TrEMBL record:
Residues 27-397 form the Aminotransferase class V domain. It comes from the Bacteria. It comes from Longilinea arvoryzae. Its cofactor is pyridoxal 5'-phosphate. The keyword DNA-binding does not apply. This is cysteine desulfurase. The keyword Transferase applies. Belongs to the class-V pyridoxal-phosphate-dependent aminotransferase family. Csd subfamily. Gene3D superfamilies: Aspartate Aminotransferase, domain 1, Type I PLP-dependent aspartate aminotransferase-like (Major domain). GO terms for molecular function: cysteine desulfurase activity; pyridoxal phosphate binding. InterPro entries: Aminotrans_V_dom, Cys_dSase_SufS, PyrdxlP-dep_Trfase, PyrdxlP-dep_Trfase_major, PyrdxlP-dep_Trfase_small.
Length: 409
């Protein structure tokens, strides 16, 4: 992406024009938490409410048919975006968290029994830990963890050893939201399958940032959130292989997920509706479709290449701030995330002072407390980058960090 294209992209995101304090423009470096939204996404949701609002899948009137068509078209766009074989493999959920919980409540509870093993990693977000901990406590299931190495990579040697214990499931993050590590997902899945396990990928930090092909990965499940990929909150995706989804019991019971209901029994609807009980997040689904259009319009390959250059630049600049340590691997293995410590200044103080300069970053454990424990850090400050960020914003971050240091010196 050229500087001119970035300028045009920034024009598409209305919020990037605002000031956060009088005379202080916003520098948004918190896209790993949630991304900003282009006008096309906001307008798509607006247009649905203004023009076509109706409940979907049931009504036989113009609005209901329009709304259903818009929502189902969004599903087709998502299916194409991740290269699913069919839109039946795309289940709309609220977010990554709900997608993972869906698998834990249905597939896992139908297939796992006491003593079975699930392999996770030390770099998981809480949403790919807690659902399995809950299951483990309920069913006496064993959890083992692929360790994170000192330089922020997964220890695949230990993974190979764990695989000899016949795991039933390997569930891991594609990209760490703290270290930024891009894990070798295809290889992890290949090894999981060779050991007879099912593989779930937490794609919350990968789907927004580079082209993902679920068939090439051979993922059994792939979960992600709309709000981190320039889409709205309240809409997420669970991709699952059709045969696996068909064999799974439904999740929530209610309207839309049924074919036939009698007083004492029901039969489940076909995919994907079997897993979508109740009125869907219709505007949000339509918004996600517009988000996919937006990202595809720019091109995922170009977004990834630009973020890589930007991350490299950020790591170079940050490495020259004395007392600052970025955790995680070098730029060649890293997505657009830089979590760091700055001398012994508390990350909350760092982020509060950066905010005075208009810079939005995140401070804390980033929903990855075990990972922070692994590196003996109570918290980090995290700057994260997306297609609308610029080198000038990173320069601004670095200057502001130098001021923070002076204040605490
Ligand atoms: N996994 C990872 C790697 C994440 O970064 C996040 C969001 N921080 C999640 C899962 C959870 O996403 P959500 O809150 O949208 O469910």
């Amino acid at each position: 992406l050229t500087p001119d294209e970035i300028t045009r992209i920034r024009e598409d995101f209305p919020i990037l024009k605002r000031e956060v304090h009088p005379g202080v423009p916003l520098v948004y470096l918190d896209s790993a938490a949630t991304s900003q939204k282009p006008a096309s996404v906001i307008e798509a949701m607006n247009a649905y409410y203004r023009h076509s609002n109706a409940n979907i899948h049931r009504g036989i009137h113009v609005l209901a048919e329009e709304a259903t068509a818009m929502y189902e078209e969004a599903r087709l766009k998502v299916a194409k975006f991740i290269h699913a074989r069919s839109e039946r493999e795309v289940i709309f959920t609220r977010n990554t968290t709900e997608s993972i919980n869906l698998v834990a409540y249905t597939w896992a509870r139908a297939n796992l029994k006491a003593g079975d093993l699930i392999i996770l990693t030390e770099m998981e977000h809480h949403s790919n830990l807690v659902p399995w901990q809950m299951l483990a406590a309920e069913r006496q299931i064993r959890l083992e963890f692929i360790p994170a190495t000192d330089d922020g990579l997964l220890d695949l040697e230990i993974y190979r050893q764990l695989l000899s214990q016949n795991p039933k499931l390997v569930s891991f993050t594609h990209v760490s939201n703290v270290l930024g590590t891009i894990n070798p997902a295809k290889e992890i899945i290949r090894l999981a399958h060779a050991a007879g396990a099912v593989a779930l990928v937490d794609g919350a930090q990968s789907a927004p940032h580079f082209a993902v092909d679920v068939q090439d990965l051979d993922a059994d499940f792939y979960a992600f959130s709309g709000h981190k990929m320039v889409g709205p909150t309240g809409i997420g995706v669970l991709y699952g292989k059709e045969a696996i989804l068909n064999a799974m019991p439904p999740f929530l019971g209610g309207g839309d997920m049924i074919k036939k209901v009698e007083l004492r029994s029901f039969s489940a609807n076909s995919l994907p509706h079997k897993f979508e009980a109740g009125t869907s997040c219709i505007a949000e689904g339509i918004g996600l479709g517009a988000a996919v259009d937006y990202l595809s319009g720019v091109g995922m390959g170009r977004i990834a290449a630009y973020e890589h250059v930007l991350t490299q630049y950020a790591l170079d600049r940050l490495s020259k701030v004395t007392g600052l340590t970025v955790i995680g691997p070098s730029a060649d293995r890293k997505g657009g995330v830089a979590a760091f410590t700055l001398a012994d200044i508390h990350p909350h103080d760092v982020s509060q002072l950066l905010d005075r300069d208009g810079i939005a970053v995140r401070a804390g454990h980033h929903c990855a407390m075990p990972l922070h424990q692994r590196y003996n850090l109570p918290a980090t400050t995290r700057a994260s980058f997306y297609l609308y960020n610029t080198r000038a914003e990173i320069d601004h971050l670095v200057q502001s960090l130098e001021r923070v240091k002076k204040l605490f010196a």
